[in-house]
Amino acid sequence: MIENLSLLQKAALLTGKSVWETYDFPQIGLRSIWLADGPHGVRKQLGSADHLGLGKSEKSTCFPTSAGLANTWDPQLAEEVGVALGAEAAAQDVDVLLGPGLNIKRSPLGGRNFEYFSEDPLLSGKMAAALVRGIQSRGVAACPKHYAANSQEKRRMASNSVVDERTLREIYLAAFGIVVREAQPRSIMTAYNEVNGVYANENPFLLKTVLREEFGFDGLVVTDWGGSNDIVAGIAAGSTLEMPCAGLDSARQIVAAVESGRLAEADVDARVAEILKLVAEAREPGTAPAVDQAAHHALARKVAARAAVLLKNDSSMLPLASGVKVAIIGDFAKTPRYQGSGSSLINPTRLDSFLDVVQESDLDVVGFAQGFQRDGTPDEALRVAAVELAGKAEVALLFLGLDEVAESEGIDRTTLALHPTQIELLAAVAAANPNVVVVLAGGGVVELPWLDKTHTLLHGYLGGQAGAGGILDILTGAVNPSGRLAETSPLALTDHPTAQSFPATGRNAEYREGLYVGYRYFATGDVPVAFPFGYGLSYTSFAYANLSATANQATLTITNTGEVTGADVVQVYVSRKTPGAHRPSRTLAGFVRVELEPGEAREVTVPLGTQAWQHWDVETSAWQVETGTWEVLAGANVGDLPLSASVEVTGTIEARTEATLPEVYRTGQVAEVSIEDFAGLLGYEIPTESNTNKLGPNDPLLNLVAAPSPLARFIGRKLIKRRTKFDALGKPDLNTHFQLNMPPRAIGKMTGGLVDQAMVGGLLRIINGNFLRGLGITVRAYFRNRKANKATLRELRGDN
What we know:
Strand content: 15-25%
Helix content: 25-40%
Number of helices: 23
Strand order of the largest sheet: 10-16-15-14-11-13
Distance between the termini: 23 Å
C-alpha cells in the first residue's frame, strides 16, 4: 500500500485528521483509525471534541482507577478488566484505547496519581501488562502512557526531567519494558516533557535505543495531544503519529524535510508502515458484539471490593453485625467521589451511591447526615446534625475524602491533608459515639493525624461507578478485604524525599532522590511511615513458613490461620548483603495473590529471575548482576518480612564500589541533596535555566505575567485570575490550567490547522514587545497558511 501513496499522502498519515482520527484514503482502501481516552473506561466523545474530559462522551463502564486496581495485586483480575474495556471500546468502534497510564508515583502530590498504578515499577508493569493483554484480546490496540519520566502536572508541557541514566532505566522505564515484552502493546504514547534536555517524542535514546531496539517494540508511537515539538525530529527518532489535528502544515514540513535531505524518506515509510500495520490488525468497524452492561457493572463492583484497603480495624469493628444500627454521615455517601478529573473522565452507564446500595443489606440505618461541605467551607449546622445522628446509632459510618479539585489532570496536589472541616467533624462524631468507621475516598494517600479518633479505617480509593457496592460488601462481610497498598502512606508530607522540590516550578524537574523512590527511600533510611508499601488487613490471619530460595525462585508455605476464607498477597523482596553498587535496602522481586480456606496451607513459588538482581551499570553501559551474597525476604508487606533466606548469586561482574559516588546515595539519605551531589550522580553539570522575561516557543504561557508586552501581561493575569476563581469554587477549569501550562508552539498543534508555526513566531514577537512587526508577521502567515492548506487539501484529494 505504501507504493500507492504519494510523499504528501504519507506525510498526512503521520498527523491527525481531527481530534481523534487519522487520515483516510478511500481511493486505495485505507480507512482512518479512531483513538479514544481511557484508561479505566472508554471516553469516546459525542459532538464537540476535546482532550480534557470537558465535552460529553458515550456511556461506558467506569471501573476503579488504576491506583485502586493496583491495590488488588492481581494481574488476572486486571486482565478481566482489560477484556471488558476492550469489548466496550470495540462496541463503540474505537481502534486505539489510550491507556493504561503507568508513570511511577514519584511524589504523592502528583495530580494524576489516581490514573497510575504504583511507586514500584514491577507492580506497575505486571498490572499494566495484564490490562493490555485484556484490551487487545478484543481487537483494540492498547496505548500505555506517558513515556517517560512524566511525574508532575505543573508545567507538564514545558518541563525537563533531569534524571541519571541508572534511575531512569531502573525506575521510570522498567515498567514500560515489562509491558512491551509481556503484552506486546500495538501503540505507546509519549510524554509532554523533555527528558534530559530532549523532548520525549523526539528522543532517539528513549524511542530508538530503549523502546524499539532493547524492548523490541514494533508498533505505533503517538504523541500526547499537543505534545509534538518538531514533527520531523520526532519521525527521525521513531515517533509515528502527531495528534491531534495539527493541520496540513505538519505534512508540508515533512515533505520539505525529505526534499531538503533533512529527513530520510525511509524513515517516513517506516512510520507509515506502523500506521498501516495498526489498521490491518484493527477490528472491522461495526462487527463487535453488544456489551453486557450489567455484567460489566458487576465486575466493576468486584474490582472495587478487591481494591479497597482495610488499614485499621481495632476491636474487629468490621465486619458489621447483622441488624446493627448505623448512622451514615458524610457527603461522599450520597454523592460518591468515584473517579478523577481530566481526560479520563468517564460517563458511567450507571452510578451507585452508598445511600442507594445500603438498602440491599440488613443494616438498620437510623438516618443520613451530610456532615460537611465538600469544598471545605465551614457549616456548623451540618456538623451539629451529624453529631446528633451519630449519638442515635451503635456505629457511625463516616464517609470522608478528597474533593474533585484535589486530584485532577493539569493540577498537582498541594497537600496530603483532608479539609479541616472533615477532621473536626470526625472528632465531634467520635466524642458522641466512639464506634466510628471511616470510609475514605481518594485517588492516593492522605495524612492521618486523626487516626486515633476512629476504630476502623477503610480506604476505598476511587472505586468507579460500582464502588459503593464494593464498600458495602466489605463493611457487611460479604467480601473479605484483600487490598494491599501499592504506595507508601507517609506520616506527613514532610517525611517524603521530594517534599521540598515537588512540583518543580522552573523548567528543570531534578530527580535528586535517584533510586530512592517511595518505599525504597523509607525502608533504606528506616523512616517511620503511617502504613508501609504492600500493607493491608483482612478479616482472617495468615502465617508464613518454610522459605527456600535460589537465584531463580522463592518457595514458601502460607497458611490461613483464621476462621474465614480470605486472600493474602505473598510479597518477596531482595536485599544485597555484600558490598557493591549502591541500591535500596530492599526491592520488590515478585508477588502472588493466594486465596485460602480457613486452616488451609499452600506451598507457593514466586519466580525471581535476572530482573531481581540486576542493575544498570554506568561503567559498562549495560545490565549487570553482581556476584555475591543476597538475602531473599518474604512476608505481608515491605515492613513485615518475617522470612529470610540467603542466596549466593553468580553474576556477570564482581561487586564493586563506586568511588566517586556522593555519600548521600550510598546511605539513601536523599531528603536534602545538594546541587553538587546531584551533579556527581548525573556525571555532568545540571543545565541552567534562562532568567529572561522574554518567552520562547517552549516556555509556558503562565510566564505571560512577566512578558515585555503589556497586552501579554494582561492576558496572563486574566488567565491566572480565572484559574484561581474556579479552583476556589472546587470546580477547576481544566482548559485554563492546560493553557497556562502550554507553550506557544503548542498553539500551532492544537488549533486544527488554523495556526501554523510561522504564526506562532509572529505571536511571540507580539508577546515580547514588538507588536507591529509581530502583527504583520502573524497576519501574513495566516493568509499564507490558509492558501497553502487549500492547495495541500486539493493535492491530497487528487483534485485538478
